[in-house]
Every structure is written in C-alpha cells, then in structure tokens.
Amino acid sequence: MSHQVLNCGYVPLVDCAPLIIAKELGFADEEGLDLNLVRQPSWSALRDMLALGHLDAAQMLSPMPVAMSLGMGGLTAQIDCLMILSVNGTVFGASNALAAELGPLRFGDARAILTALGARGPVRIGVPFPYSMHRLLLSYWTATQPDLNAEIVTVPPTRMADAVSQGHVDAFWVGEPWGSAIVQRGVGKILMAGRDVWAFAPEKVLAARHEWVAQNPQATRKLMRAIYHAAKWLDADSNRPLAIEILGRSEHLNLAHEVIDPAVTGYLTPAPGARPLQINNFLIFHAYAAQFPWRSQAAWIAAQLGARDADIKTAMQCFRSDLYRDNLGPLGAELPGASERIEGEMHEATEVAGSRGPMILARDAFFDGTTFDFTQESDQ
Amino acid sequence: MTRDLRILVVEADPEKAQHIIDALIEAGWQVVHAITQVSGLERSIKEHDPDIVLIDMENPDRDTLEHISAVSDTKSRTVAMFVDQTDHDLTQAAMAAGVSAYVVDGLQMNRIKPVLETAIARFQVMRKMRSELDAAKQALEDRKTIDRAKGILMRQRGMSEDAAYKLLRKTAMDQGRRVIDVAHALVTAADLLT
Known about the structure:
Chain A is of the alpha/beta class. Chain A has helices at 17-24, 27-30, 43-51, 63-69, 96-102, 110-119, 133-143, 157-165, 178-184, 210-215, 217-235, 240-249, 257-265, 295-304, 309-318, 321-328, and strands at residues 4-10, 33-39, 57-61, 79-88, 90-95, 123-127, 150-154, 171-175, 188-193, 202-209, 267-268, 277-278, 283-284, 342-343, 350-354, 357-361, 372-373. Chain A has 2 domains: 4-87 and 202-253 and 283-337, Periplasmic binding protein-like II (D-Maltodextrin-Binding Protein, domain 2), CATH 3.40.190.10; 90-200, Periplasmic binding protein-like II (D-Maltodextrin-Binding Protein, domain 2). Chain A has 16 helices and 17 strands. In chain A, strand 15 (350-354) and strand 16 (357-361) form a beta hairpin. In chain A, helix 1 packs across helix 11 (217-235) and helix 4 packs across helix 15 (309-318). By secondary structure, chain B is an alpha/beta fold. In chain B, 62% of the residues lie in helices and 12% in strands. In chain B, helix 1 (14-26) links the parallel strand 1 and strand 2 (31-35). At the A-B interface, helix 3 and helix 8 of A face helix 3 and helix 4 of B.
C-alpha cells in the first residue's frame, strides 16, 4: 500500500527534533506516512504557507495558532494545535557589555536579573518573533519591574549572534542552539533559562488548519501517533547520545553536534570558558505528559496577548486536547482528568489522578508565584 | 493610473535589488528605494515612509519586518500586513514567485495590484535565471566528477576512456543508480585510499 505524503513545515532548531526523529527513525513510516519535512526561512513564511494550504501541518511557536485564530498579526486563519512538540528550551542572556554592567548574578535567578536590569538604563532585547513564547515570557517577566525600560525587537535566531556582537541588541531570548552559539562566539552570556520564568512553558506545537484536520482525520491521527512515539523515544536518557548523532547528521537540521548537545543533554555553558551547568527540565519532549495540549495553556497565551474573555474561550478550543485523548489514548498516553488546570500551581513535581491512574505532572510555577485559573472559562 | 506610491525593497543581494528597482521604475513608479541591511530597518521605514514594502519570501529578516508592522499604529503610517485572502489569486501568485508585500493600512487594492504584478513578474524571471544557472553549474560539476572517475579507471585498470565510461554506465544500470552517483562513489573511495 502506498504511503500518504504529508508536507510538514519546520524551522531548523533543536526542538524540531520530534519531527526529524519521526522521519529518520521510521515512526512516520510505520504509520503509513511519507513525512515530507519542508524547511522554512522564517516564521512568517511558515505561517503563510500553512494558512494558504501549501503545507498540511507545521511546527509552530505555541502562541501562533492562538494569534492566528484570534486574527492577530496579519493573517487570520483557524489553526489547531494538535499537540505540544516541546516544553521549555529557550534561554535569556546579555551581551558581554551588558553582562559586565549587571555584575555577578546567580544563574537562573529571574528576580535578581530583573532588579539589576531595572537599575540600568533602557535595554533592547531581541526575540525571534512577536508571537513567540520567548516574547510572552519576556513581557510577562519585565512587566513586574516598572523601572525597566525594555524595547523588544525581532531578530531571526540565525542573526542573533551578529546582532549581539554589533550592539544592535543588548540582550536576547532565543531557542537553542542559538543561545549556545552566542556563548561559543564569545559575544554574550546566558543568564537564565526560559524555565526560570515559567517552569513548564509550552514552546513549539504541532499545528494544522482546523478545516484540514476535520477533513483528514486519518492523516491527523497517523501524524500525531508518529510524533508521540518519536518524542517518547527522544525522552529516554539512554537514547540521547544517539539522538544527538541522528540530529547532527540529518540534512534537515544542518547543525554541528556541539551546538545540538546542550539542549538535548540539558548541560548548558553559560559563559565562554565556564563549567557547564545541569539545567533540570531544560527541554522536555514527552515526560510529565508534556505533549498534552492543555486548554489552560492556550488561555494563558491568549490572556498574555491581551485577548478578551470571549476570545480566550475561542483560543482554548484551538488546543485540541479532545483529539489528543481520542488519537493517543489507545496508545497508552497519559491523560489528565481534565483538560484545563490552574497554570503555575505546581511548585514541585506532583502526583495527580489521571484518567487511567496516577500520573506525575512537573513543576510549572511562575518565577513570581502567580497562578492562573482558567478552569472556569471552558464549557467542557 | 497614478503611480505615485513610495516603494521600499528589502533585499540582501544588491544586484537582485537593482533588478526589482529597475522593473518598477520602468513600469512607471519613481520613488523606489532598496535596503540590504535589515538592522536599520525601522529607521529606513521612518525615513522613506513607504506605502509598500517588498521582501523576498526566503529572507529570514521577514520576521523583523513582521514585528515592526505588528507593533506599529496606523497614525505613524508604518506598514501593515498584506498577505490576506481578499485577492486569493494574487496572493497565491506572489507566494509562488517568492515575494511578500507589506502595505500601509487603507491603501486601495487597485493601487497595490500593479506593483505586486510587476514584482511578481520580475521575481519569476529571477527565479528562472537562478534555476538555469544552478542547473548549468550542476551539469559542469557532474561532468568534472565523471571525468575524474573515468581517469581513475583508466589509470588503475588500464582502460580506454570509452571503456571506462561504459563500465560506469553498466555499473549504474546494474545497481539502478545514476552514472553520476557511481562516479561520485568511486571518486570518494579513491580519495580515501590515497
């Protein structure tokens, strides 16, 4: 039987790993899918290609399906998030000049870094895209420091090291490998990881047009199953060296082993010549039900984008926890009892009741301890 | 038709930028500027105050342009997003040609369309030139590799050039591969062994 060709867009970053593994290790093939990975030059290009039907599915920054479904940022389209591709995995850092001004700071101390930044004059901070978790976390974090005059600009991650070295930006919030690339070039330092602001932030998602999903239930299910297996494989510690090897060789990523290593192993070198630090939960693909698209995550994103209550409800519907349950439940995927929760409530990994017995959810606290209760917003 | 729009082209390759500018000027628009460096994009937009910004779809700097348009308010007259489905065919044509456009809010579609059509036509020509050039370069590279493989066989096995090529071709046919792939494998193996 011939395989169904599925065109899936992606941007070559370490966290597109589940897509590459699904293809290279044959998880897509086992599902009867010919997964055609189509590299995209920018997030805007990827968005247009998906919205206008040139791609069937795509890796997206988690705020993109919400923004598009709510008509923010130019191109309106009903886009579904089928599942989460990765949680966390970004870093915040400063140019050498700014890092020197800020003085010694403990790695990952989000409050101390913020205070130090507030005491300094205006700062320009680079992010990869306006509708990115990077930008939302940055805005959330800096909003708590009224003294801080932060200007947020978009710099494509491949150009971030140049922007830092040329003084175009003073600080940066990027996904790996581009943070480690800045350290390796000796032009800046990593001060904290994204998880130091929100311990469990949905970073990239698997997205498709709502209409396409409705018309292609079989292909949707096959794709979700392939990605589920790939992420599960990726999260096994014993597979990580091989994962780095495969990602490093893959024509789809075209990155050196050295720059893939930190994100996959969680050992990050914060400054040139410094000892690598082990960052817990630096990048999660599968553990702690990371792939489950919580409707409350969509609500948090929508609220951060300034959506009104009615729009927050719309946003929650684009995170398809219903499809996740239907398509991946039969594989034995862990399924939480409800599809929304109080975001930021877990201050440590906690055992909760799932629909098939107890399951463990990771710490998901915000740096300032705020919790967000969207459990009343949903009708389901 | 009035062709008094201010157009800004964002293109890293100066030669390519000039091609697009020439095409637009020939078609009657006069205020056309190009920038190659996106680090000063915001300043350039303030300075040139464009009605339309054109950018190659392949250009990663598009995301920067996107951000500037997302945060701008209409009063400051910076660009808003164009790619919408009001003219589906035009949008698809622009995408196929590889050009994206950002247009100031409220600009009439009948004024945008000729600019886009001119840009699309020029992008198509450039894309065709590029793929022809790539194909020619590739053919030249392949020829060199096959010549090297033939040379290796002639030296190592004392064959004539004709016999060497026939052997390459037969091996390719037997293995269901292309001649160039077999030649490549032979050249790589020979490099490893010397």
